[in-house]
Amino acid sequence: SSFSDRLFRFRVNWRVSILPLALQLQALYRVQKMASDAPVAATLAMEPPLERSTFSSLGVEPFLCKALQAMAIRKPTGVQAACIPPILKDCIGSAQTGSGKTIAFALPILQALARDPHGFFGIVLTPTRELAFQISEQFRVLGAAVNLHSAVIVGGMDMMIQALELKKRPHVLIATPGRLVDLIKSNQGEWSLGKVKFLVLDEADRLLTPTFAPELGFIIDQLPASRQTLLFTATLTEPVLALQNKPQTPGKPKVFTHVSREVVTTPAGLTQKYVFIPSQVREVYLAYLLQHLCDLTGAQPLHAAAPKPDTKSSTKRTTKRAASEEAPPVLPQTILFVPRCGTAALLHSLFSQLPNPIPCTSLHSHLSQAERLRSLQTFRKQAVPLLIATDVGSRGLDIPEVAVVVNWEVPRVPEDYIHRVGRTARAGRKGTAITFVTEGDVDLVKALEDRIGTQLEELELPEEPVLEQLNAVTMAKRMAHMELHSEGFGERQRKNKEKGEAAQGGGSKAQGKSASKGSAKTHRKGSSNQSAQAAGKGGAVVAGGKKAKKSAAPRGGGGAAAA
């Protein structure tokens, strides 16, 4: 059938059967139930009264208040006012993206460090490298008055340099779990984490999953039982909530939990739209959308002129277009989220191949760590208006001036949508989220709207002007494919995957010979391997100090390993 027929059926289904009044009421009921569910409400602390409106009234030392004023931060947000005082005990804090969760745990750590400074005072674990560098920058600014020495330990960087940095015993480590475990194992005896006072799990809902369970269990085994454990997240999952109900550790107060009064969902100042498109010409619609984004959203443009193209072959492309007198598109600061690294690289190249190129940079895991940091810094400094990112950019990154978020496709998990669109409309600002929807996405849209408790608005793009640039975009896409092929994009990842599969095949032959030795070794290692196995089976593991206990598996098969 024709696109017009499919579009007509989609719109009829949308307005008549997909989201009738009954479903809207059901969505509203579920949102209200999440906010008032009795078992949760009975145990979760809500936001404090408004009279606690200054950092000094929360007990924050004057030198830290001065640092906050230098950052133009004058009043605490809800999560900061609720969590800073009780962080002398274990704490779980949940609030919307952009609400200042990092400062909520950084201030108490720095205040305690000023009283008793020593190496390896605190560890902050994050699921992504980019978030680790962002947190490090906030610690650096706030901790200048106490001569804070911090270190970022993430993958993609030179391990030898990182090992030398750890020998200097920094006060605060900001790390991704995998690289920290590698350094602990390769430098045993040279330094110890036995005096750590604070362990922070930022984006705890991502860390408390089977993916991170082995590393997290190993790290926890290296820490003293007397440490304070802080968990912060924008989305409360069942593994996170389960931690507050764990048995109280002898000699320590019960875990304090703060949840924002508002159900954690999309920001209040966010306008949410969808564009219905035929999947075969997705790139054509995307190019038109970006070229007219200011007119379609009302957002202010970032620049009136384009900077130098951000690609290796920029000189060659500039020469090709020397005769073009058309000005480049003027965009607001925008993040385009795509599902795969290959898509990000393809679109990055495609946009630069257009007759009227779109200035952009990209952020994905196939880039080296230096390239990822350079790309993010380019976007932060507003040298380019568009960042094409996979979900490595959806967690915790704080770029206040982002005006628009575009989703290349409907996220499969509603929580991923919440984190993505949370990159805009931060801290009370306005923002717009636009999601591309195709014929097969109806069920995903229903689930998404049910979760966020609101209906997406339709943004109609004029079909004829869009398709006028079909030939230009198709040619640019072909050129982009050729460029990626000539540069060997993804070749290193494919070779590493093949090596891993070959090693795994060889290892399986030797596995039987060493089974008895391996089982004895596993038994001696204790709780960290138990944590990994239980989490891998979907169980939630709650570790108190150096021993772990199994608890009932949460719904959805998620695992947890935490203190």
From TrEMBL:
<keyword id="KW-0547">Nucleotide-binding</keyword>
<dbReference type="GO" id="GO:0010467">
    <property type="term" value="P:gene expression"/>
</dbReference>
<dbReference type="InterPro" id="IPR000629">
    <property type="entry name" value="RNA-helicase_DEAD-box_CS"/>
</dbReference>
<dbReference type="GO" id="GO:0005524">
    <property type="term" value="F:ATP binding"/>
</dbReference>
<feature type="region of interest" description="Disordered">
    <location>
        <begin position="302"/>
        <end position="326"/>
    </location>
</feature>
<feature type="compositionally biased region" description="Low complexity">
    <location>
        <begin position="510"/>
        <end position="519"/>
    </location>
</feature>
<dbReference type="InterPro" id="IPR050079">
    <property type="entry name" value="DEAD_box_RNA_helicase"/>
</dbReference>
<dbReference type="InterPro" id="IPR011545">
    <property type="entry name" value="DEAD/DEAH_box_helicase_dom"/>
</dbReference>
<comment type="similarity">
    <text>Belongs to the DEAD box helicase family.</text>
</comment>
<dbReference type="InterPro" id="IPR014014">
    <property type="entry name" value="RNA_helicase_DEAD_Q_motif"/>
</dbReference>
<protein>
    <recommendedName>
        <fullName>RNA helicase</fullName>
    </recommendedName>
</protein>
<feature type="region of interest" description="Disordered">
    <location>
        <begin position="486"/>
        <end position="563"/>
    </location>
</feature>
<dbReference type="GO" id="GO:0042254">
    <property type="term" value="P:ribosome biogenesis"/>
</dbReference>
<dbReference type="GO" id="GO:0003724">
    <property type="term" value="F:RNA helicase activity"/>
</dbReference>
<keyword id="KW-0694">RNA-binding</keyword>
<dbReference type="Pfam" id="PF00270">
    <property type="entry name" value="DEAD"/>
</dbReference>
<keyword id="KW-0067">ATP-binding</keyword>
<feature type="short sequence motif" description="Q motif">
    <location>
        <begin position="53"/>
        <end position="81"/>
    </location>
</feature>
<dbReference type="GO" id="GO:0005634">
    <property type="term" value="C:nucleus"/>
</dbReference>
<keyword id="KW-0347">Helicase</keyword>
<feature type="domain" description="Helicase ATP-binding">
    <location>
        <begin position="82"/>
        <end position="254"/>
    </location>
</feature>
<keyword id="KW-0690">Ribosome biogenesis</keyword>
<dbReference type="InterPro" id="IPR027417">
    <property type="entry name" value="P-loop_NTPase"/>
</dbReference>
<dbReference type="GO" id="GO:0016787">
    <property type="term" value="F:hydrolase activity"/>
</dbReference>
<feature type="compositionally biased region" description="Basic and acidic residues">
    <location>
        <begin position="486"/>
        <end position="501"/>
    </location>
</feature>
<dbReference type="Pfam" id="PF00271">
    <property type="entry name" value="Helicase_C"/>
</dbReference>
<keyword id="KW-0539">Nucleus</keyword>
<dbReference type="GO" id="GO:0005829">
    <property type="term" value="C:cytosol"/>
</dbReference>
<dbReference type="GO" id="GO:0003723">
    <property type="term" value="F:RNA binding"/>
</dbReference>
<feature type="domain" description="Helicase C-terminal">
    <location>
        <begin position="323"/>
        <end position="467"/>
    </location>
</feature>
<dbReference type="InterPro" id="IPR001650">
    <property type="entry name" value="Helicase_C-like"/>
</dbReference>
<dbReference type="InterPro" id="IPR014001">
    <property type="entry name" value="Helicase_ATP-bd"/>
</dbReference>
<feature type="domain" description="DEAD-box RNA helicase Q">
    <location>
        <begin position="53"/>
        <end position="81"/>
    </location>
</feature>
<keyword id="KW-0378">Hydrolase</keyword>
